[in-house]
Amino acid sequence: MSEPRSRMLAVGSGRPTVEVVEAGQGPNLLFLHGAGGVVWAGALPLLARHFHVYAPVLPGFGKSAAEGLELIEDQLELFQHGFDVMEALGLDQPLLVGESFGGWIAGEMAALRPKEVGKLAVLAPIGLWRDAAPVTDLFGLEISELLPFLFHDMKSPAAVGMSQLTKLMSDKDDKTDEQVEQLIALLMGFRTAAKFLFPVPETGLERRLWRIRVPTLVLWGAQDRFIAPSYGEIWAKNVKNAQVVQIERCGHLILQEQPEAAAKEIQRFAGI
Amino acid sequence: MKFTWFHLMPYRWLPADFRQRYHSVWVDLPNGLYDPEKGHGLYNEYLDQLEYAEQCGFDAVAVNEHHQNAYGMMPSPNIMAATLARRTSKSMLLVLGNSIVCYNPPTRVAEEFAMLDVISGGRLIAGFPVGTSMDINYCAGQNPATVRDKYREGHDLIMKAWAAREPFAFSGKYTKLRYVNLWPRPIQQPHPPVWIPGLGSIETWDFCAEHDYNYSCLSFSGYKKGEALLKGYWDRRAALGVDDNPHSAAFFQQVCISETDAECEKQWWPHVDYFFNKCLHLYPGTSEAPGYRTAASLRAGVVAQVGNTSANHGKNKSWKELVEGGYIIAGSPDTVRQQIEELIKKLRVGHVLLGCQIGSSPAELVNRATRLAGTHILPKLRHIFSDFEDRWWPKPLPQSRRAVPGATL
Fold first, then answer.
1. Pairwise CB contact (< 8 Å): A199 & B137
2. Test mutation, B27, B136, B143, chain A, max A CBs within 10 A
3. Which residues contact B281 (CB under 8 A, 6 or more apart)?
4. DSSP state for residue B150 in the 8-state scheme
5. What is the pTM of this model?
6. Across chain A, how many H-helices and E-strands are there?
7. B310 close to A (CB below 8 A)
8. Residues A197-233: pLDDT tens digits?
9. Complex prediction ipTM
10. CA-CA distance, B343 to B1, in Å (whole number)?
């Protein structure tokens, strides 16, 4: 399996320059990451066997400088940034895939300029709210406490891998410089997510869901404890061409916890 | 030297097993624990203490703002300052302060501070904190990624509103007002002195230097750890080419004053224990929202005001450790005076904010401490730094032009 390439992409003056992680050959797949950034593991390498995967990185994540976030002032500019990146990459009606935070952005992009998106696949997207099923507070938990909300099986390889990171969050003053930088990187990414989702991640998307007319796949982990699978029903009810599919034995981070099943569903939906 | 009596107003009846049953004193501590009738007594007791501080010779009395917090029961410091404005006449009123970003529009702060300044005859010191992350992000829902930008804009609007004598339009990113036109406006000209509470961020020091504001270092770790912070402050001012006037800085210090060294620990320990082990019991998950601190501040390893749990070194410490570490200054008036003098000289601060009430300390103990401070400590330290002009002190109306509460009845 080929390693992904990473490059910096300038999208225009006065707009943020961002990292793009890229791999594979085939139809274009534009992937919008969640609050953890682009993790090249799990389903992404599998998808790169069938698609040309482009994973742009929002300011504050990966190699995209946190300062770039100041150039994205509000929701609208965030969605426009998505299209700026798409245009700079020369993508015409790609399969747009978004996970969690990125799922929200992908849905909004499809609602905003429906003719520029080929198909839409959202994985446990956020942006909606029901008082009866509050979305977990991403910004009000210790990282170690957050993990059980992200994974169904805490013994799964992805969960075990991620729990290593949480050790960084101890309140002991014994971190190496490298660990401090890792911690700051994590916080800067969360800061970007917070800019659009703090304190309650209800974004107004529900009023716009009807505008999504492209074929849409909504994937949800059947055991998602971060944002309940019942939110999928709101998508099913409001998005005309939506298929909602639950993946068993799976929590919120679908691409990490059930990579094969997730990749298979996306390929099936894309007709590959 | 000027001495300010600073109240936090803690709730006194957190249960013995508080730390086992609840994860934080702040943000999400169920308010079922709060008894309003007890709170009634407590507010009045605490306001008595502040009024008594004036009688004992303190130069100012201070209140601050916290939300959803059992150790700081002043979500509206302005209400407290308003009662003090009527019941005091000599001491200055330090409101440290109003969290600008929580007020919409921020002209509310300009208005209320102007009211306090006018009611008190020009005795107000206006504090403008960014606010702790618990207060402004988790309790007030302000966005951590933009809150500092919003703070700066709100500050600029308030200062412009105080200065203007004609209505003006303000088109900011966070606030748009077609007509800004403050009624009333403050007595003090060009504006009441401004103090900025903070801990050790370079951004705060630069902001104070740029605007000639007082930097008030509010730490619960005491003067021995504070020395490094103030060194940073003075070094930064030197680097910026700004004067080293000691009155540009204030330092908060908790003190336990008894008649003799021998009886101090016995009298104060339960209340000190209550403060460090209950009042500073914080849940890390809601102590700092991502983006609250800049990457530069994080990298510098600067601790958040009180939020970062690694900063709460006062937890699980013995009386001896707290005293030796300078977290508290404790003992007879002589002992306390010596250490405050050391604080003043080592940190080079022209203002000391004394926390004379600590944790669950009862009225009698606190009032005695205030009296001892006023009689035996303050008079002996006032002369220090008297050759420097204090540009950060209110300029009230002379007594002859002041209204007397009740005089028209």
1. yes
2. B143
3. B18, B19, B22, B23, B24, B25, B315
4. H
5. 0.95
6. 10, 8
7. yes
8. 999 999 999 999 999 999 999 999 999 999 999 999 9
9. 0.93
10. 12
